[in-house]
């Protein structure tokens, strides 16, 4: 048995609360290397004593080989701890022997173990993995409707044009990022019956707020639909019509960074560190702008620039928000609330969420 392939980590993707009563547990082995894996588990405080001998009220249950990759097998089990607490370890049968894999070490056993405690790792709960408590408050509070939603992602400029404002022929190849094809909000409304007929029950829109690009990830105004797509009232109408067809609407929250044109950052461009918004961004070095600014007021740079302020990737057009700053926090959170309360959207997708402060997201 390849012991180096064996792996488990408590309170991770290998051990997590599925709901307020159930744990999902995974264990990894080398592909086709073991005969079976079982889970020994129980409440760490649930003991009885018979004839002066300790007995842990635990269970040993077989795990299912759920899936395999080219290198590994993954064993799975769902368990329901009796009183929300769980200590657990893994019994492996391989090469005609029994092994116990615990949180600190692995031991070879003399056959299948009993539940009456004796010497050795199997009888040492300090060598068991621990899921201390299934707290309902710690669960991911995902709305029930999300699980069964059939999603359709729409990049607004490239979906469908109602007003036919673009001079570019629809279906032109190749397509370039900087091109505008004229897709708009009323174009989506036109196609809602088509989406309904496809079985779509949720639309996720990539950013649609005012910005200078086609992709709109460089937000200028978090409270305004880009005029290229229509008006705020057009969007409200779209949400209403989608809801009538049972289609949810989710927008893209770009909270990691804004665009060069955002008024807060433009104030920094004009006033530098004296700007009242200076701390809304990460201005790491002086000069803040270590590149030329054109007559049009835009960064002039080549692909090798490393701006002296933090950005998404290294583009000077997307300064990173300091989400610990109270002004930035309020601005961003107000925008999140605005589109939910005023336009009845159903949710948000978080852009670059892996780079946004977890403290802010909480």
Walk me through the structure.
The protein is α+β, with helices and mostly antiparallel strands and 362 residues long. It has 2 domains: 3-137, Immunoglobulins (Immunoglobulin-like, Sandwich); 144-361, Alpha-Beta Barrel (TIM Barrel), CATH 3.20.20.80. 16% of the residues lie in helices and 27% in strands. It is built from 5 helices and 18 strands. It has helices spanning 185-198, 232-244, 263-271, 326-343, 358-361; strands at residues 15-17, 23-30, 36-50, 53-62, 64-68, 72-79, 86-94, 97-101, 106-109, 129-131, 151-154, 202-205, 209-210, 221-225, 248-253, 292-293, 299-300, 347-350. Strands 3, 4, 7, 8, 9 and 10 form a 6-stranded antiparallel beta sheet that branches. A hairpin with a 5-residue loop joins strand 1 and strand 2 (23-30). Helix 1 (185-198) packs parallel to helix 2 (232-244). The longest helix is centred in the last third of the chain and has 18 residues, at 326-343. It starts with 14 loop residues before the first strand and ends with a helix. The model has no long low-confidence stretch (mean pLDDT 94).
